[in-house]
## 1
Amino acid sequence: MKSTTFGIIVILAIGLICGGCEKEVNYNGKEYTKKMVLNSMIDCSQDTHFIKISESVFVYSNQNPQPIDDANLEVKINNLPVGVVYDHSTNEHRYYRFEASLNPKDKIEVTGDSQSHGYVKGQDIVPNPPQILAVTPEWFTGIKDGISYLRTKIKIKDIPDEDNFYRIVIHDKVIFEESSPEEAKWFTSDIYVDQEILFKDILGTLGETNTSLFAIFSDKLFQGQEYLLNVYIRKDNFSALNAEHYVKVEILSLSENLYRYLRSLELATNGDNFSEPVKIFTNIDGGFGVFGSYTIDQQIVNID
């Protein structure tokens, strides 16, 4: 188990970035001028949002990224400007903050200007929220490894008349008899997808452990219909110790930009980056990174 969140994605992306400013960044052995890397994965259930900027680094060089301290950022929601302020720094990364209550189909635009790293621009459309109809957990023991697992069947309803993109996130926690609910913490679980047909036709999805890096998928096989997802997590069963088990299942509806970005990271991570070119999707014109958004539906289930 590992702690949440999307944060590690950005780190991984910067490590792989290495090339031009088209929709797919290709590594072809050539160093490029340093540009601005702008990343923001906007959780539309929140009103506070962050944008991270840094300097691009050629992945196979000895370059040390430097902070960009002369950037000027602007954000517009449906063509109306909102205030952007500097928030904090971590090493070479600079974080900016804006406040906005976002709704489905809102158009979000960001621009950044730096005398040292040029002009960048990105935009995204807030996706419609997903809908979880039911979550059914089932304990089982692996036949070959004898390990305890929890199958999680998730029934969702797809939004009709449009292409939709989703991500599954599962958190779990255990409350032991001698502890209080406040002491128990949620942990984000690796999701096994090898028994779900949606993932069988997605090249590069599965790692060596039959887990998916981001557990993302499209509605191509069930457009406008209800669908029952069949995934599972590794989870010890402490029922004999009078423990209470919970899972928090989240379905994220991803913008197409965010889906394509995560998909390219998934392929790059599971592929052979030395024999084949690395291609990382970006929707940041003039630079690198992703400006994307997502909406969430969730259910918390007591397993016992």
Note: The chain has a mean pLDDT of 87.
## 2
Amino acid sequence: MMDDNELDGYKLFFEKVFPSMSDTDILNELWNFANTSLHKIEYPEAEEAWKDLKQSIDERSKGINKRGNTVYVRTFGNKKDRESEELLRCFYKHVYGIDFIKIDKSNNQKPTSVLQKYTDYSKKNSNKKKKLVNYQISHIFGKTLNCYAFAAPWNVIYLPKILDPLTGHESKGIFTRKFTEKLQKMMLENYKDMIVEYNEKMEYTFMDKIKSFKFQKEGLITEFGKDRVEKFFGEIDKNFSKIELPKEKS
């Protein structure tokens, strides 16, 4: 429900363009378009993509460095802020005991390459793939600091750019909330087994490590600054949380 004193720019736009349609009808039309125009990694390719990602993480955690097993994540905060990047590296080193990650300098290079490899579509000219124009990479559950989620087949899709305002972190309101819920529901239904496995990784690999990392707060503040560290703690809570699964019907 909108507050009487609140003006939602999206709602005003839709009321102007579709004056005879209810919010529910507009949302349904938006979802119908999204559902027929987005492109995700289908089975069995999705299983292969998930297996490859887990294998890369497993090999890197054992100190095995070879071509193709680099583990990518998006940086924390401003990508030009070297101290924020170093804080993220420090966290992963605490978890795995080694210099573990590589920062995706374009923010989406690795997810883009995964989608191109495991779907029939590409954002670049290709003899083997259909070219997508005015599409972007969308992370359905966010969690771009998380090595198990950043390029995971259950988290990344090609989405028409015109739908970006309904998925961005900066947008709010009923249309953004309901549209995001539909996207997440679709991915949960399609990739439930993978997301269950992801949740297990968060519980058994990261939960205790996050707690012990936070015990180092004072030392981290001395090295990286109070505001940066406190913001980072909030981000790791979001990025390494488990994903809520739909309840089983009785």
Note: DSSP finds nine helices and six strands in the chain.
